[in-house]
Design a protein that fits this description.
Elements: E1 2-5, E2 12-15, E3 24-25, E4 32-34, H1 40-59, E5 61-67, E6 70-75, H2 76-85, H3 89-118, H4 123-136, H5 142-159, E7 161-164, H6 166-184, H7 187-192
Antiparallel strand pairs: 1-2, 3-4, 5-6, 5-7
């Protein structure tokens, strides 16, 4: 048996050592104590797929818009550069931090931890690789960014001849894979679930 404290009421609950396929609830307050994540192979695949979508999402044009016989086509990177050129440093910096730096740090941390775990490297190394994930896991905003792009696309559609391009699909793929990987990744599984 392994003892784990409930996050809600603080009672020490006993969990079976080998029974990690089920959810475990607190015997006192009923709060969820443990829920297993997906296999590390699936998480690794989704994280790697998200990384592969990331660079085309950044560089390919997201849309083209024709208003009054003037055509505009822009990628995510061009939008960020445009914000800095127009002296919108705070907004451009926020987009770089929340949409580029934090997700890349989280994905790199997840991939590193899974690779270290697969190679059976020492726990302190895994702990250091996991630190960026723990710091930034609540700060990523890909799904918010994706929804804001979808809302902007609907608004732009009313203004002129709006055509979604490949970059928008790459952004959607990146955001969906990133969100799925972070939802499936359970840090408790790193320490408690034995690998077959």
């Amino acid at each position: 048996m392994r003892r784990t404290a409930c996050h809600e009421c603080g009672i020490l609950a006993h969990l079976p050592l080998l029974d990690y396929d089920y959810e475990h609830y607190c015997p006192r307050c009923g709060a969820l104590i443990y829920r297993s994540g997906e296999s590390f192979a699936l998480v690794f695949t989704m994280a790697l797929t998200s990384l592969l979508f990331f660079f085309p999402a950044l560089l390919y044009p997201s849309f083209s818009l024709v208003i009054a016989n003037r055509a505009v086509s822009s990628s995510l990177w061009e939008m960020i550069v445009f914000l800095f050129e127009k002296d919108h440093f705070f907004l451009g910096g926020a987009i770089i931090f929340f949409v580029l730096v934090i997700p890349l740090t989280i994905l790199s941390s997840m991939v590193s931890v899974i690779l270290f775990k697969a190679r059976k490297l020492p726990s302190p190394l895994i702990k250091h690789a996991l630190a960026p994930y723990r710091v930034f896991k609540l700060w990523h905003m890909e799904e918010v960014f994706l929804f804001s792009l979808l809302v902007a696309s609907v608004k732009l559609y009313d203004l002129g001849d709006f055509t979604p391009e490949a970059g928008l699909l790459f952004i959607a793929g990146y955001a969906i894979c990133f969100f799925t990987a972070t939802m499936w990744f359970n840090t408790k599984d790193i320490w408690y679930v034995p690998e077959p």
